[in-house]
Amino acid sequence: MPLPIHCDLPQRTDDLNRLVAQWGFVPVKQLPKEGLMLWLDAERLSLRDAGDKKQGAVSVDFAGGGSRHRRLHGGGRGEAVAKAVGARGQSTPTVLDATAGLGRDAFVLASIGCHVTMLERSPVAAALLQDGLNRAVMDSEIGDWISDRMTLIPGASSDLMSDWSGERPEVVYLDPMYPHRKKSAQVKKEMRLFQQLLGPDQDADALLAPALALATKRVVVKRPDYAPPLADKPSDAQIKTKTHRFDIYFC
Ligand SMILES: C[S@@+](CC[C@H](N)C(=O)[O-])C[C@H]1O[C@@H](n2cnc3c(N)ncnc32)[C@H](O)[C@@H]1O
Known about the structure:
The chain is an alpha/beta fold. The protein folds into two domains: about 5-55, S-adenosyl-L-methionine-dependent methyltransferases (3-Layer(aba) Sandwich), CATH 3.40.1630; about 65-250, Rossmann fold (3-Layer(aba) Sandwich). Helices cover about 30% and strands about 20% of the residues. The protein is built from nine helices and eleven strands. It has a seven-stranded mixed beta sheet with strand order 7-6-5-8-9-11-10, with helices on both faces. Helix 4 links the parallel strand 5 (about 95) and strand 6 (about 115-120). It is globular and about 55 Å long. The chain starts with a strand and ends with a strand.
């Protein structure tokens, strides 16, 4: 079901029309009383639960908030995801992130120098991500490299990877949605809203074979620590964090 989108700012009518035309969202003048909805305000596009104001809004903000903090004070190349894709010294592999979501992992990799192509099949996630990218290119700190290193292609990865005609990526990165076991504080608004919107990616196992056929160096799969390996295929190596592990398959 296409989500309703609300915008009451005349100066953003063109942007609203573009979003409606590109993604098929349904423009609404009145705020819905319940259910998931998109809101376009003066600054950004966000996803909200109209019936649960406490839940807050989800949007993509690469230039500020958690992404900025992580870029300036996180581990950079020391981050587990960077080690998992094999970023080392001056080596920054090209990465195809075939389950881009809100682009947080892709941004970490791009901020250390990787060129990341992001695939995303959910129109809502892709629209939020594109909105975040559009604002990031205008930012004085990160704008000069965002458009060079981060590219979004909307669509289903299994088809896009099987029909790939461009240069093959060195790494394919997969982080499909997996059901959460615990209601931890960490599984906060973003993941809860996303679970509500998308549910688990039941077909995720089917991504491993095309990923292994496409990557030239390795495939990396991010899994919760309690989840079995994707497609039940044992990995060649693993990197573990407190809550996750990165299963690595060498090509
Ligand atoms: C857990 S989220 C990814 C989070 C992301 N790694 C991040 O850092 O923000 C999984 C995303 O993958 C997308 N996805 C799952 N299977 C897909 C497929 N076959 N093709 C394209 N996107 C897919 C889902 O729509 C969802 O947005």
